[in-house]
Design brief:
Elements: E1 4-8, H1 12-24, E2 28-32, H2 38-44, E3 49-53, H3 61-69, E4 76-80, H4 85-93, E5 98-101, H5 106-119, E6 125-128, E7 131-134, E8 139-142, E9 145-146, H6 151-162, H7 170-177, H8 186-203, E10 207-213, E11 217-224
Parallel strand pairs: 1-2, 1-3, 3-4, 4-5
Antiparallel strand pairs: 6-7, 7-8, 8-9, 10-11
Helix pairs in contact: 1-5, 6-8
């Protein structure tokens, strides 16, 4: 069996079209058209990715994404007709791994799904001074405490920590994190970094790991005290 995608979309024709494209690409797919059914479905089934519409009957995508993030780092791609930048950042800050705006090509959705799943796969552990990055599970721990990172946050931490001291510009980070070549603003990277630093600080309040260099970018470096 292939990897599984759960499509949560109330537009039945669109959901069916997306399912057809994903199935043709080797995915197993289930459809849900009412947001209130998602929690029960996830409690009884396994999936590799949720394709989640923002506006749904029963329960909205924002609430569903919040609920998922309370207990899981399951990859989530949010889909919406809203194109305002604030809405984009809201979706990402809720813990969504990606964001697609309608109208879109079904092929684009398939490409995005594959990209997110690639970022959530792997088979190695990287350990450094109590920080462990498990590529198999996309789980990052510091001294045994789970940082509860999203897939994008994990990938950012992995890229930065792989080369301590190297300064990465935002454009380079965009290229490494979003391999499909889409246009992603600096604000999106800054938003992810802000949340990542906050999660690290909650476990290591006296250590600064990710440093910002004004108008240049970011670097990873163990340093006592705040920079």
């Amino acid at each position: 069996m292939g990897q599984h995608v759960l499509i949560v979309e109330d537009e039945v024709k669109l959901a069916t079209l997306l399912k057809d494209y994903l199935v043709q690409s080797g995915f197993d797919v289930d459809l849900i058209h009412d947001g209130s059914e998602v929690e029960g479905w996830l409690a009884q089934h396994q999936t590799n990715l949720v394709l989640l519409d923002l506006m749904l009957p029963g329960k909205g995508g924002v609430e569903i994404c919040k609920d998922i993030r309370k207990h899981s780092q399951l990859p989530v791609i949010m889909v919406t007709a809203k194109v305002d930048e604030i809405d984009r950042l809201l979706g990402l800050e809720l813990g969504a791994d990606d964001y697609i705006c309608k109208p879109f090509s079904p092929r684009e959705v398939v490409a995005r799904a594959k990209a997110v799943l690639r970022r959530s796969e792997g088979g190695e552990k990287v350990a450094d001074k109590g920080l462990i990055l498990d590529i198999d599970t996309y789980k990052a721990t510091i001294h045994g405490k789970d940082l509860q990172l999203t897939a994008v946050e994990f990938q950012l931490l992995k890229v930065l920590s792989d080369q301590p001291g190297r300064i990465f510009s935002r454009s380079v980070l965009v290229d490494k994190i979003y391999s499909d070549g889409r246009v992603v603003s600096d604000r999106t990277i800054d938003s992810h970094i802000k949340k990542l630093r906050k999660k690290i600080s909650a476990q290591l309040p006296d250590v600064e790991l990710i440093h910002s260099l004004y108008a240049v970018g970011y670097k990873f470096e163990w340093q006592q005290g705040q920079s």
